Amino acid sequence: MFLKLVKHESHAAARAMLPLLLGLLAMSLLARGSIWLVDTVDSPVTNVIAVFLIGTFFLSCAAMVVTTMILMMVRFAKSVHSDEGYLTHTLPVNVSTILLSHLLVSFVAVLLSFGAVYLGVRIATLGVNSYKAMGLNLSAILNQVGIDTGSMLLRLGCILGMGILVTILMISAAISIGHSFATGKTGKSVLFFFVLYFAQQLISSVVMVAVIAAEYSTTGSLAMEMDAVNTIPSTMLWFSMAQLTFFGGVYYFLTWFMTKKHLNLA
To answer: Domain residue spans in the chain?
Structure first.
């Protein structure tokens, strides 16, 4: 049944994301065309056109990720907490299975949106040697100071993936809390999102100060353990992953609890 839920939600996500993907692809082609136009006919008019199209393309990249997240959360609210949710909860599955299927589909959808942005940038800069040279130079600089580019990208990828999961869970928790009220559900969902967000930032800041203070009291300096020169401190890396795991667990419990409570009240 879990796989059937994932399949159903995947189809719904695909229908919603297809226009976004086609729009981003069209904008990447237009951006690449504008670069070619400037290289072919260098004039103030072509420069203005290129700036406009390239700027619009990068705005489309940001909109792709943000809109995908919004669409997934709207889908979550609709299929779990709206009238359609009553039909969803009549299925022979528990609340955890429903929530996990939404979490998986939303996570994959956001990853695909990042992948689409990467593909769009590759298309827009196809054949532009300056971008390739910039990437090679950055990699060379990192290697010269002792930073393994592959290791750094892996770490950043792990943090990014966990951050996406926690953000999805945070929004899901805010929606679940907001929909536990009889009126003003959307407004209360937005309000609780900001409450959860600022609470997370406050707790993270307090704990980070405590970690730095503990490091200072132990070593007598603020220098933390480094895997390589100027790379990400191991202490802060594990701290970030630990706090993301903690907040993700809290948000999942809030989503599960409020959804269960809503069903019991219905």
So the answer is: 1-127, 149-266
**In angstroms, rounded to a whole number, what is the distance separating the alpha carbons of residues 95 and 197?**
24
Whether the CB-CB separation of 247 and 240 falls below 8 Å is answered with: no
Closest CA to 176 of 44, 47, 70, 80: 80
The answer to whether 170 and 251 are in contact (CB under 8 A) is: yes
Helix (H) or strand (E) holding 159: helix 149-178
Supply the DSSP string of 121-146, one letter for each residue. HHHHTTT-HHHHHHHHHHHHHHHHTT
5 exposure class (CB count in 10 Å sphere: 0-12, 13-18, 19+): buried
Q: For 64-117, how does the pLDDT look when each residue is reduced to its tens digit (9 = 90+)?
A: 999 999 999 988 988 888 777 667 767 778 888 889 999 999 999 999 999 999
Beta-carbon-side half-sphere exposure of residue 176 (alpha carbons within 13 Å)? 23
In whole angstroms, what is the distance from residue 137 CA to residue 90 CA?
57
